[in-house]
Amino acid sequence: SSGINAEYGSGTDVEQETRGIRAETEPVERSLGAVSCTSKMLLLNARSLNPGGDTCWKLGLIRDYVLNEKTPIVTIAVTETWFKGYHSDAQVNIPGYDIYRSDRVNRVGGGCALYVQCTLAVSDTTFYASSNN
Question: For residue 122, with 0-12 CB atoms within 10 Å meaning exposed, 13-18 middle and 19 or more buried, which class applies?
Protein backbone atom coordinates (compact mmCIF):
# COMPACT_ATOMS: atom_id res chain seq x y z
CA SER A 1 0.00 0.00 0.00
CA SER A 2 1.25 3.48 -0.80
CA GLY A 3 0.32 5.01 2.57
CA ILE A 4 0.31 8.77 2.39
CA ASN A 5 3.32 8.78 0.09
CA ALA A 6 1.77 9.98 -3.18
CA GLU A 7 0.73 13.19 -4.88
CA TYR A 8 -2.99 13.78 -5.52
CA GLY A 9 -5.11 15.77 -7.88
CA SER A 10 -8.70 14.69 -7.26
CA GLY A 11 -11.12 13.80 -4.49
CA THR A 12 -11.17 10.19 -5.69
CA ASP A 13 -7.44 9.90 -5.05
CA VAL A 14 -7.89 11.22 -1.50
CA GLU A 15 -10.69 8.70 -0.86
CA GLN A 16 -8.42 5.91 -2.09
CA GLU A 17 -5.66 7.20 0.17
CA THR A 18 -7.99 7.11 3.18
CA ARG A 19 -8.61 3.43 2.46
CA GLY A 20 -4.82 2.99 2.32
CA ILE A 21 -4.49 4.41 5.82
CA ARG A 22 -7.29 2.18 7.09
CA ALA A 23 -5.59 -0.89 5.59
CA GLU A 24 -2.33 -0.07 7.35
CA THR A 25 -3.77 0.22 10.86
CA GLU A 26 -3.95 -3.12 12.58
CA PRO A 27 -5.68 -3.60 15.93
CA VAL A 28 -3.45 -4.76 18.74
CA GLU A 29 -5.23 -6.92 21.29
CA ARG A 30 -3.72 -7.66 24.65
CA SER A 31 -4.97 -9.19 27.83
CA LEU A 32 -4.27 -7.47 31.12
CA GLY A 33 -5.45 -10.02 33.64
CA ALA A 34 -9.24 -9.83 33.57
CA VAL A 35 -9.16 -6.71 31.36
CA SER A 36 -8.96 -6.99 27.60
CA CYS A 37 -8.45 -3.94 25.41
CA THR A 38 -7.97 -3.19 21.76
CA SER A 39 -5.96 -0.29 20.43
CA LYS A 40 -4.14 0.70 17.27
CA MET A 41 -0.84 2.19 16.24
CA LEU A 42 -0.51 4.08 12.98
CA LEU A 43 2.80 4.17 11.09
CA LEU A 44 3.15 6.47 8.07
CA ASN A 45 5.82 7.62 5.68
CA ALA A 46 4.26 11.01 4.98
CA ARG A 47 6.72 12.49 2.49
CA SER A 48 5.99 15.96 3.90
CA LEU A 49 3.41 17.23 6.33
CA ASN A 50 4.69 20.80 5.88
CA PRO A 51 1.88 22.95 7.32
CA GLY A 52 2.65 25.82 4.95
CA GLY A 53 3.27 23.89 1.75
CA ASP A 54 1.17 22.26 -0.93
CA THR A 55 0.99 19.03 1.11
CA CYS A 56 -0.70 20.62 4.15
CA TRP A 57 -3.88 18.66 3.37
CA LYS A 58 -2.15 15.44 4.44
CA LEU A 59 -2.08 16.48 8.10
CA GLY A 60 -5.81 17.29 7.90
CA LEU A 61 -6.49 13.87 6.42
CA ILE A 62 -4.59 12.18 9.25
CA ARG A 63 -6.41 14.30 11.88
CA ASP A 64 -9.81 13.44 10.42
CA TYR A 65 -9.02 9.74 10.23
CA VAL A 66 -7.65 9.54 13.79
CA LEU A 67 -10.48 11.54 15.34
CA ASN A 68 -13.17 9.51 13.58
CA GLU A 69 -11.69 6.05 14.16
CA LYS A 70 -13.75 3.86 16.48
CA THR A 71 -10.82 1.86 17.86
CA PRO A 72 -8.44 4.21 19.70
CA ILE A 73 -5.15 4.92 17.96
CA VAL A 74 -2.76 5.34 20.86
CA THR A 75 0.37 6.24 18.92
CA ILE A 76 1.03 7.67 15.48
CA ALA A 77 4.59 7.35 14.17
CA VAL A 78 5.37 9.49 11.13
CA THR A 79 8.57 9.39 9.09
CA GLU A 80 9.60 11.96 6.48
CA THR A 81 7.62 14.75 8.16
CA TRP A 82 9.82 17.44 6.58
CA PHE A 83 9.16 19.59 9.68
CA LYS A 84 11.68 22.30 10.46
CA GLY A 85 12.38 24.21 13.67
CA TYR A 86 10.22 27.12 12.53
CA HIS A 87 7.15 24.84 12.42
CA SER A 88 5.58 25.09 15.86
CA ASP A 89 3.99 22.12 17.62
CA ALA A 90 0.70 24.04 17.50
CA GLN A 91 0.86 24.10 13.68
CA VAL A 92 1.22 20.33 13.44
CA ASN A 93 -0.88 19.18 16.38
CA ILE A 94 -3.48 16.46 16.43
CA PRO A 95 -6.08 17.15 19.15
CA GLY A 96 -5.77 14.73 22.06
CA TYR A 97 -2.13 13.85 21.30
CA ASP A 98 1.26 15.02 22.55
CA ILE A 99 3.94 15.31 19.87
CA TYR A 100 7.60 14.30 20.09
CA ARG A 101 9.65 15.45 17.11
CA SER A 102 13.07 14.99 15.62
CA ASP A 103 13.40 17.48 12.75
CA ARG A 104 16.16 17.20 10.18
CA VAL A 105 18.43 20.23 10.11
CA ASN A 106 20.59 21.61 7.30
CA ARG A 107 19.02 19.33 4.66
CA VAL A 108 15.76 18.93 2.78
CA GLY A 109 13.26 16.27 3.83
CA GLY A 110 13.66 13.79 6.65
CA GLY A 111 12.47 14.15 10.20
CA CYS A 112 10.09 12.07 12.23
CA ALA A 113 7.35 12.62 14.76
CA LEU A 114 5.63 10.50 17.33
CA TYR A 115 2.12 11.46 18.41
CA VAL A 116 1.06 9.84 21.71
CA GLN A 117 -2.42 10.03 23.22
CA CYS A 118 -2.44 12.63 25.99
CA THR A 119 -3.88 10.04 28.39
CA LEU A 120 -0.67 7.99 28.20
CA ALA A 121 2.28 8.89 30.39
CA VAL A 122 5.63 9.11 28.64
CA SER A 123 8.25 8.64 31.33
CA ASP A 124 11.52 9.01 29.42
CA THR A 125 12.27 10.52 26.05
CA THR A 126 15.78 10.45 24.64
CA PHE A 127 16.67 11.88 21.24
CA TYR A 128 19.78 10.68 19.47
CA ALA A 129 21.36 12.97 16.92
CA SER A 130 22.73 11.38 13.79
CA SER A 131 26.09 12.56 12.55
CA ASN A 132 24.58 12.50 9.02
CA ASN A 133 21.64 14.81 9.87
Answer: exposed
Taking alpha carbons only, the member of 19, 20, 40, 18 closest to residue 29 is: 40
Q: What is the C-alpha to C-alpha distance for residues 97 and 43, in angstroms, rounded to an integer? A: 15
8-64 tens-digit pLDDT: 333 444 444 444 444 344 444 555 455 556 788 999 999 999 888 888 889 999 999
User: 124 CB contacts (<8 Å, ≥6 apart)?
Assistant: none
Closest CA to 84 of 43, 46, 51: 51
d(CA 59, CA 46): 9
CB distance 75 to 42 below 8 Å: yes
Q: Taking the model in full, what pTM does it have? A: 0.67
